[in-house]
Amino acid sequence: MVATTKTSSIEIVSDREENMRAIAYSMDLLIPGIYLWFFGFAIRIGGETPDDNPYKYPGKINSPFGIALVLPGYKIYTTYQGIYDPE
C-alpha cells in the first residue's frame, strides 16, 4: 500500500520503491525539479509521478544516495552517474 501526502508541488510517498521510481522517471524525462535520496529517504520537489499507461515505467535509481537539480531547458546537474535500467 502506498500512502501519498501532497502539499503544493512537494510530494512525500511512504513506499521507498515508488518514490525512487518517481525520481528516476522525472530525471530520465528531464522534468524540472529538485530530487534528493539518502538510504530510503527521498524528497521530490517538482517532477511527476510515472504515467503507467500503456505500461509501467521500469526505471530505477541504482544508487543509495544522491541529489539532482533539473532546470527548464533540459539542464541537469546531478551526483548520479548511473543508468535508469533495473539491475
Description:
This protein has one helix spanning 16-28; strands spanning 4-7, 10-13, 33-38, 41-46, 65-71, 75-78. The protein has 1 helix and 6 strands, in the order ββαββββ. Strands 1-2-4-3-5-6 form a 6-stranded antiparallel beta sheet, covered by helices on one side. It has 87 residues and is α+β, with helices and mostly antiparallel strands. A hairpin with a 3-residue loop joins β5 and β6. The model has no long low-confidence stretch (mean pLDDT 84).
Please give the structural blueprint.
Layout lengths: L3 E4 L2 E4 L2 H13 L4 E6 L2 E6 L18 E7 L3 E4 L9
Antiparallel strand pairs: 1-2, 2-4, 3-4, 3-5, 5-6
Portion in beta strands: 35-45%
The global form is globular
Give the overall average pLDDT: 84
Q: pLDDT under 50 segments (min length 5)?
A: none
N- to C-terminal distance: 24 Å
State the helical fraction.
10-25%
Number of helices: 1
Oligomeric description of these chains: single chain
Largest sheet, described in full?
6 strands, antiparallel
| Overall SS class | alpha+beta
What is the ordering of alpha helices and beta strands?
Answer: EEHEEEE
Strand order of the largest sheet: 1-2-4-3-5-6
What's the count of strands? 6
Q: What radius of gyration results from the CA coordinates?
A: 12 Å
